[in-house]
Automatic annotation (TrEMBL):
Name of the gene this protein is made from: recJ
SUPFAM superfamilies: DHH phosphoesterases
PANTHER family named in the record: SINGLE-STRANDED-DNA-SPECIFIC EXONUCLEASE RECJ
Gene3D superfamilies in the record: 3.10.310.30, 3.90.1640.30
Protein name as it appears in the record: Single-stranded-DNA-specific exonuclease RecJ
UniProt cross-references to NCBIfam families, sorted A to Z: recJ (TIGR00644)
UniProt source species: Candidatus Manganitrophus noduliformans
Residue ranges occupied by any DHHA1 domain in the UniProt entry: 359-447
Amino acid sequence: MRPTAAIEDLFWKVRPIDLDEARRLSARFSLHPITARLLLQRGVGPSSVKGFLDPSTDLLNDPFLFREMKRATARILQAIERNEKILIYGDYDVDGMTGAALLVETFRLLGYPVDVYIPDRFEEGYGLHLPPLRRAREAGTALVITVDCGTTSHAEIKEAASFGLDIIIVDHHQLAGGAPPAVAFLNPEGPPQETPYPFRGLSSVGVAFKLAEGLFKGSGLSPLRLRPLLDLVALGTVADVAPLTEENRYFVSEGLRVIREGIRPGIAALLEIAGEDRASANEQTLGYCLAPRLNAAGRLYHAGEGVALLTAPSREKALPLAERLEAYNRERRRIQMRMWEEAERQVSEMRDADRHPLFVLASEGWHPGVVGIIASRLVERYRRPAIVIALSPEGIGRGSGRSVEGIDLHRSVSVCRALLEKFGGHAGAVGLMIRADRVDLFREGLVNVFSEIPSVETSETLWIDAEIKLEEVTFDFIRAIAPLAPFGPAHPEPVFLARNISLIGLQRELDRSVRFKVRDKKGWTFDVVGPGGMNLPWNDFVEGAAVDLAFAPEVWTWQGEPRIFLRLKRIRRVGAIEQRPEEQC
């Protein structure tokens, strides 16, 4: 039986709001009523309105609130004074690439050259590896600074110290036991017995930026000179699906301004090759245009090309690299399509698949660099955690997992870590290595773990910010929403509900996206667009059907003119019964 996600089975809820408080907030700050409502629904009260709508450096914490920041900056400045060789050791995802590029650029600003090493996804896999560390030491390197790895590499760090290599860890992944025996350990997770950094939502590139701030302060330089690096922080933060609150809100907001200014040749070139308008770049540009193209290098070939693009000194150097990444991304899409078709087939052939608390899928025909994308799509479509494993002919599986809000996948997989060769990650995503003959045991073990976890209602709930009429969706209305951007985890994009409107001219495209119009009884009509992969019973929606529509309004340029479109979030037939998941038959 194929799992269904019929929209009438979702439990739709309107976010609570005190309308009197919203009116007072609107009057006090001269805000559009919808702006005031959305702010309050996201926990932004009178004392924080101005800082939220105009993010500034006031949102940034002192970098020395990291307990070992003084130790890290002192060792780096000592290395510079002694003219010691420094190596930046990154990772092959966008967070690792942007973090490595940021530290390279930081040392450029300090006038000190450094080397970069990115491990090969296929030959080495994730994390610190002794062979490249030994080679670095033999080449004269005295200090290694990791980005997006190292938190769980206790043995490798200890061994590196034995042959004279100091290591500073810059990471955000969860700990497995105590802190690693590094010269300095910068991680917002931190050992539980220590006073934590005030904001635990930093990605690794965010932590790298805090290290850059610390270095500049320690060198008597103004951290404001680091502003041109915020494009890298914004890109890595969004790509790693970090919460867009507190410090991250400033990083992404200001980083997008840097991107629109075209300061970095590599990002400007990649946008140009992708056909995107740099001047209108937003958080979706980061997540759906730039990140996939950078990731394609690490997924299919080597992430070093992504770092080279991000640190390219000129457009002439950047364009050939951008063109290569564009070609890699096209190849990635072809591979992804084939893998997705098989993943769907495996799910459809499962017995009682609707009752599975998670999916663990594996195949010898899958590309290990694309398993994370397939896991994300499974989570989006079936609203449950998923782990996807690519099996090699040698019997080794490399897997990637994604979770839903409210379920800590890292903690769940940790229970079964004895079955794994390697394992790491955080609450929302994990990476692992496993022998092929253990996959079935691993799947059974995880199912048992998940059987003890209460169902998480938030993963099944569609949250509506306001019920409105189509006539209210105007350019002024959309302009009133804009100051709340950027949107993302922990600060979701506003979703609105229009009830009892007519569906007209449904078109289903080859990529499984949809287009149609909606019209209310007063004749107000809008075009609606929906992404591919939405698991909806479209055959049930006949011409003229009365529907309830959940949507996000957007302004697109159409034939040279601005025009309002409604981006589909959910749709249901009028009168459809809303059921909680546990009430479904």
